Amino acid sequence: EKDGFDHFMLKEIYEQPKAYRDTMRGRILDGLEGVKLPELKVLTPERLQSIRNVHIIACGTAYHAGLVGRTLIERAVKIPVENDVASEYRYRDPIITPETLVIVVSQSGETADTLAALREAKRCGAPVLAITNVVGSSVAREADDTIVTWAGPEIAVASTKAYTSQLIAFMLFSLYWAQVTGRAEVADLRRELAAMEALPEQVEKLLEQATEMKRVAEDMAKHDNLFFIGRGVDHAVVQEGSLKLKEISYIHSEAYAAGELKHGTLALIEDNVPVIALLTQPALIEKMVSNIKEVKARGGVVYAITDEAHAELVGKETDGVFVIPTTLPHLSPALSVVPLQLIAYYASLARGNDVDKPRNLAKSVTVE
Ligand code: M6R
């Protein structure tokens, strides 16, 4: 059932190209002219036109997918988006109106906190859209509309292909929303959709270099503390990378918006502290390079993940670099998270942990 892989997690990492294709299948119009989502019944174009703000609610990895979702929606639709972890949402008395679209994201569709947030949103009259991997789950049944991610069953406790399929769902939904409310030109949709369709092959390409991540992970596994840094959407992705590493390798790590280091955390950087830096955003590369210099000046060892377009520049400033294919900047999380998943996997393996069933954790958290 593991198809020759040692663990479900590794199998699921390698299933991502298929999960991307399955989640896109039937949802892209011929000639890349737009997106179709006939499953949206309550969220008609008219209803979407009336939406003034968005709340994206989820837990753990699904929350991290929502952080990327925010960038995608704000960019495509130009409507303000807030993210909350589901266990906090209700308790801050959020301002929810019938013009608020509440998006809940859940692989299992059974997470108690997420379900409670969904119910609160409905009580306030907001339309609720679910992004879930399980057809007929509680979240899918109670939401007004559902976009299913076709990642297939995810067995490993550490979520991988569900996260990346959630990114694909956000990409599709944000483009759809822009399209049906007249905010997107066909030329732009074509460019976006062509870039999306290239993602599965790009993941296949970077998976061919997986052993390089094994070497990095084995090095990381010798440390008890490390940092991840990124800016913009890369910051959202490193938060996911850090969670993945903690969850299965039990190595303490923190993910920082790189510009925040000098506001406190830099005090923790000393000789040989490993820092994993993610750089995929052209507009932020220079700022990231300055942040990397701050780390290097204090003795930190910086391993970078960047795309082909920036490999040379970044290679000069860091101690090692892993190169991923180039895509549109806002689509990069669908590629850049993969090496981080591999680092977590191989670090867990190097430490002799139970990769698929980390201590203290359950696949589906049905208590609040
Ligand atoms: O099933 P859900 O997506 O609602 O689960 C949410 C979190 O419990 C889950 O993503 C958790 O953070 C993962 N184990 C992370 O790998």
Task: Compile the SSE list and pairings.
Blueprint: H1 8-14, H2 16-24, H3 45-50, E1 53-58, H4 60-77, E2 81-85, H5 86-89, E3 100-106, H6 112-123, E4 128-132, H7 138-142, E5 145-148, H8 161-180, H9 186-207, H10 210-220, E6 225-230, H11 233-249, E7 252-257, E8 274-279, H12 285-297, E9 301-307, H13 311-317, E10 320-324, H14 333-350
Parallel strand pairs: 1-2, 1-3, 3-4, 4-5, 6-7, 6-8, 8-9, 9-10
The structure holds 5-amino-5-deoxy-1-O-phosphono-D-mannitol.
Tags for this model:
five-stranded parallel sheet; 368 residues; binds 5-amino-5-deoxy-1-O-phosphono-D-mannitol
Could you please describe the fold and organization of this structure?
This protein has 368 residues and is of the alpha/beta class. The chain is built from 14 helices and ten strands. A five-stranded parallel sheet has the order 2-1-3-4-5, with helices on both faces. Strands 7-6-8-9-10 form a five-stranded parallel sheet, sandwiched between helices. α11 (233-249) links the parallel β6 and β7. α2 (16-24) runs parallel beside α8 (161-180) and α11 runs parallel beside α14. The longest helix has 22 residues, at 186-207. The chain is globular, with a radius of gyration of 20 Å. 5-amino-5-deoxy-1-O-phosphono-D-mannitol binds next to α4. Residues 59-62, 106-108, 111, 114, 157-159, 247, 364-365 line the site of 5-amino-5-deoxy-1-O-phosphono-D-mannitol.
